[in-house]
């Protein structure tokens, strides 16, 4: 999976093609969370954000990884960014419910 993410990073998206639906580096982060490696997952989500900034899924993954790794400050920061990104949404998406609950604990 790491090799796939590295390969995707080396390929530039053509200007007229749509963006990646789910970047491979985010998928790698998800896999690492499932494998109980949240610190490494957080690094992958942060690397993905450098290339694919302001992604709902990227912020949520980074927040979950930081939370699982015990980094409360980063988790709160990423959940806050997620809420800011979706501030005009009238939604009860589980990701936003979790973000609101986490930030409210602070």
Structural features, described:
- The protein is mainly alpha-helical and 106 residues long.
- It has a single domain, classed as Serine Threonine Protein Phosphatase 5, Tetratricopeptide repeat (Alpha Horseshoe).
- It is built from six helices and no strands.
- Helix 2 runs parallel beside helix 4 (56-69), helix 3 (38-51) packs antiparallel against helix 4 (56-69) and helix 4 runs antiparallel to helix 5 (72-85).
- The chain is globular and about 40 Å long.
- The model has no long low-confidence stretch (mean pLDDT 90).
The CATH class designation is: Mainly Alpha
- CATH T-level topology: Serine Threonine Protein Phosphatase 5, Tetratricopeptide repeat
CATH architecture: Alpha Horseshoe
Which residues sit in consecutive blocks of at least 5 with pLDDT less than 50? none
What string gives the helices and strands in order?
A: HHHHHH
Q: In terms of structural class, how would the helical and strand content be classed?
A: mainly alpha
Query: Got a strand count?
Result: 0
* Percentage of residues in strands: under 5%
Name the CATH superfamily classification. Answer: Tetratricopeptide repeat domain
* Net shape: globular
Kindly summarize this structure in a few lines.
The chain has helices at 2-10, 24-34, 38-51, 56-69, 72-85, 94-105.
What's the topology here?
Layout: H1 2-10, H2 24-34, H3 38-51, H4 56-69, H5 72-85, H6 94-105
Helix pairs in contact: 2-3, 2-4, 3-4, 4-5, 5-6
